[in-house]
């Protein structure tokens, strides 16, 4: 099973920004306890590489990807730290070509048909649809993806996804997994609200199972 199939199985990818690397393992344990052993650790903080490395080394069963990967150097750092995949809010052909060269599965962000076609040209299997709600929500994704259904490309809507609109996204067959910060917000991580994060994860897992009829 490839990494994007694994994300699809979970249906939800927690998008994480951690300021203090010391919070990495407690956060991973909170997500694992909630039954959602995966995370997109964003390169929005300087601690990203150290966090990915710590989780990969100390919690090897956790699935860890890198988010907000904007440069070739960040792609290198993400892979070296142990990331199994990477994503970004937008699309950059040079970064995509580099990720492919180093063997890092990469899902770039798209919001227009032209961006989607660039992703297809680069052989992407999954793209982030960002910012999902402001860009038009599930109705927009349904329309924009229709001409490309035969390519099999999958989507990871991120930006404004919440438990309230989760069913609208996951009911679209082209949506493989949503992304969102609501499970582990930057504030909850900074306040070390580990139980709350576990509860959010558990609720998300239950909601996905409910929506998918599992
Ligand atoms: O910064 C944006 C994140 O990628 C998604 O954020 P959100 O889940 O808080 O809307
Ligand atoms: C937008 C997003 O989730 C990212 O920074 O990768």
TrEMBL record:
Enzyme Commission number: 4.1.2.14
UniProt catalytic activity: 2-dehydro-3-deoxy-6-phospho-D-gluconate = D-glyceraldehyde 3-phosphate + pyruvate
PANTHER family, sorted: 2-DEHYDRO-3-DEOXY-6-PHOSPHOGALACTONATE ALDOLASE-RELATED, 2-KETO-3-DEOXY-6-PHOSPHOGLUCONATE ALDOLASE
Recorded metabolic or biological pathway in which this protein acts: Carbohydrate acid metabolism; 2-dehydro-3-deoxy-D-gluconate degradation; D-glyceraldehyde 3-phosphate and pyruvate from 2-dehydro-3-deoxy-D-gluconate: step 2/2
Subunit and interaction comment: Homotrimer.
Keywords of this entry: Carbohydrate metabolism, Lyase, Schiff base
CDD domains reported in the protein's UniProt record: KDPG_aldolase
Organism superkingdom: Bacteria
Identification of the protein by name: 2-dehydro-3-deoxy-phosphogluconate aldolase
EC class: lyase
Pfam families per UniProt: Aldolase (PF01081)
Family: Belongs to the KHG/KDPG aldolase family.
A GO molecular-function annotation: 2-dehydro-3-deoxy-phosphogluconate aldolase activity
């Amino acid at each position: 099973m490839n990494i994007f199939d694994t994300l699809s199985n979970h249906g939800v990818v927690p998008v994480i920004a951690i300021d203090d690397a010391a919070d990495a393992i407690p956060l991973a344990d909170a997500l694992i306890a909630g039954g959602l052993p995966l995370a997109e650790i964003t390169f929005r903080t300087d601690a990203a590489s150290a966090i990915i490395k710590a989780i990969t080394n100390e919690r090897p069963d956790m699935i860890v990807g890198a988010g907000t990967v904007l440069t070739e150097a960040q792609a290198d750092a993400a892979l070296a730290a142990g990331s199994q995949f990477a994503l970004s809010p937008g699309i950059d052909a040079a970064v995509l070509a580099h990720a492919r060269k180093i063997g890092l599965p990469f899902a770039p962000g798209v919001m227009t048909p032209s961006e989607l076609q660039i992703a297809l040209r680069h052989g992407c299997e999954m793209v982030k649809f960002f910012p999902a709600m402001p860009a038009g929500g599930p109705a927009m994704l349904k329309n924009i993806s229709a001409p490309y259904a035969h390519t099999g490309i999958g989507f990871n809507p991120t930006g404004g996804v919440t438990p309230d609109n989760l069913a609208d996204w996951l009911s679209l067959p082209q949506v493989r997994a949503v992304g969102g910060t609501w499970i582990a917000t930057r504030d909850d991580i900074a306040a070390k609200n580990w139980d709350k994060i576990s509860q959010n994860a558990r609720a998300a897992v239950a909601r996905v199972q409910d929506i998918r009829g599992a």
